[in-house]
Amino acid sequence: MKKVVFLCLSLWFICSCKAQLSYTNLNGLWIGFELSNNAVSIVSISSGSSSLAVLPDTISGSPITSIKDGAIAYSYKPSSFYMPNTVTNIGNSAFAYNSNLTNISFSTTLKNIGYRAFYGCSNAVINLPASVENIEEEAFANCSKITNLILSATNVGRMAFYNCDLYNLTLTDSVKKIDMYTFSENKNLTNIYIGSGLSSLGSYNVPFRGSASLKQINVSGLNLYFSSEDGILFTKNKSELILYPANKNTPTYSLPTNTVNIQNYAFLGNQHLTQLNLNSAIWGIAYAALSGCVSLTNIYVPENNSRYSTQDGVLFNKAITELERYPPARTNKTYRIPITVIKLLDNSFSDSQQLETLNIPSNVTTIGHYAFSKSKKITNFVFEGSVSLIGGSAFNECSALEEIILPNGITEIPALLLQNSHVLKRVYIPESVNLIRQNAFIFNTNLIGIYFKGNAPSIEYGPVIIGNEYKSLTFANTNATVYFKSDKGNWSNKFDVLNTSNWVSTIDTCITISQNSSNPNFNELRIRAKKGETARVFFSSDLTNWNIYTSFNGADQEEVIPILNDSNLQKMFFRLNTQ
């Protein structure tokens, strides 16, 4: 009996201590609040039609110390908000999406600002007090009125000031840690000062990614972890280059003699750099270190470097078995990879500006992720042998690529292989392919034909459920027809979002074919070429070895070329090349 009484008393005590939600109206301001331990937490606020919200110093004689999660989120009123100097904590999404909010008076004792606390307050002018110690992820993301920021918080979370409108950023000596993308996509950010206290830039060291206007970074000489030279951010002893400002207008740059590593995205988006001189000590260059350097024409490496070498300004490993980086602004329209190369590294040809034809010799067996991504003019990839592996997004956003014959040897089409190549019309899949990964052809809006030479592959299905079935996003936003051979495996129900057609005639449909009306023994190739172009028609039985069938000078009109309607020619593939 005593145990039961004790339990009941304990439960009564716990319940009686739990904060109760109450409401009050103060000068037209409806406030929902909780009172606990002589401290008030604001739960909800409504200013009615008033554009002004002023929190009192106390409610029921107790100070306001916290504004809780979502307290005034999505509110169209007020435009001005004043909090008392007793507030120390602002909760998650407390003011989120208040686009009407223009002026905020912060507590001078504020310490913690929660996740997405002011997310999307696109018109709010933000002046943070020096008392703030912790700012959580995305707290001020998309607050486009933040222009000059002097920050004192000890820890600043991921994307905390993402996509604001910063021009100048000062991290005072009290700032210890920032995180991945903390200040990313601030496209007008020009100057950054880093004080003595900063010790971490977060994962991958990319807190300032997307700062297209950045000209210089200066670091306090008292900082123990980072340093700067000529506006460039390094580790303390300059052994690693972290960030070369995207808008640093210096055509030629030479690495310091003791720099041994260039970190990922270090030169991202710099469109002024034309010549990069590496040193004899450099040992590591991250795969995306030079992404977006669209003006780069030449990379130089001293002969005594034991890790890298160059040929005609193209960067290789020392043995020339791996192609590291083809400078995007090289003026060559055609480039043949050296026959010693067996691997194209990630991003190796990304952002190429002038290259139109790339000859890939038979020794190349591996092609890295994003290898040809965002190539501006490449129209022809010539694979001279089989390739065993192609990385994801290898042909992402190839803006001039209309047709591609993928090399034999690959067993799978990786994720996002050809995504966003918007002029792509036809893709030829070799017999070796047995698996197509999720999103391989996503957003190829002009894709009209996918031609399979071999058996029906497996299709990777993702977490998207339509009705009661898993559906593939592999071909999302495409209108292609899948062409297949009826004698090559089971093709039923393989492509749930595309038309399918038995590929009876193997004549390539990139050239219009019709029967000759006057002679049934002949078919006709109907080809249109522009005036001044030389058109060459090639044929092949295996999509690998091509021979010229005929050629003619374009005249802005359709040319009709007869083809004997026999079994041998009907087994051929035809393709067109113009110059």
- Through-space gap between termini: 99 Å
Portion in beta strands: 25-35%
CATH-defined architecture of the domain at 20-145: Alpha-Beta Horseshoe
Helix content: under 10%
Number of strands: 49
Per CATH, the class of the domain at 20-145 reads: Alpha Beta
Largest sheet, if any? 9 strands, mixed
Low-confidence region ranges: 1-17, 463-470, 504-516
**How many distinct helices?**
1
Shape: globular
- The named CATH superfamily of the domain at 20-145: Ribonuclease Inhibitor
Structural class: mainly beta
CATH structural fold name of the domain at 20-145: Leucine-rich repeat, LRR (right-handed beta-alpha superhelix)
SSE inventory with pairings:
Layout: H1 2-17, E1 21-26, E2 29-36, E3 39-46, E4 52-54, E5 58-59, E6 62-67, E7 80-82, E8 89-90, E9 103-105, E10 112-113, E11 134-135, E12 148-151, E13 155-156, E14 168-171, E15 191-194, E16 216-219, E17 226-229, E18 232-235, E19 240-243, E20 252-254, E21 261-262, E22 275-277, E23 284-285, E24 298-300, E25 308-311, E26 314-317, E27 322-325, E28 334-336, E29 343-344, E30 357-360, E31 366-367, E32 380-383, E33 389-390, E34 403-405, E35 412-413, E36 426-429, E37 435-436, E38 449-452, E39 458-459, E40 465-466, E41 469-470, E42 481-484, E43 499-502, E44 512-515, E45 522-529, E46 534-540, E47 547-553, E48 557-564, E49 573-578
Parallel strand pairs: 3-6, 4-7, 6-8, 7-9, 8-10, 10-11, 11-13, 12-14, 14-15, 15-16, 19-21, 20-22, 21-23, 22-24, 27-29, 28-30, 29-31, 30-32, 31-33, 34-36, 35-37, 36-38, 37-39, 38-42, 42-43
Antiparallel strand pairs: 1-2, 2-3, 5-6, 17-18, 18-19, 25-26, 26-27, 40-41, 44-45, 45-48, 46-47, 46-49
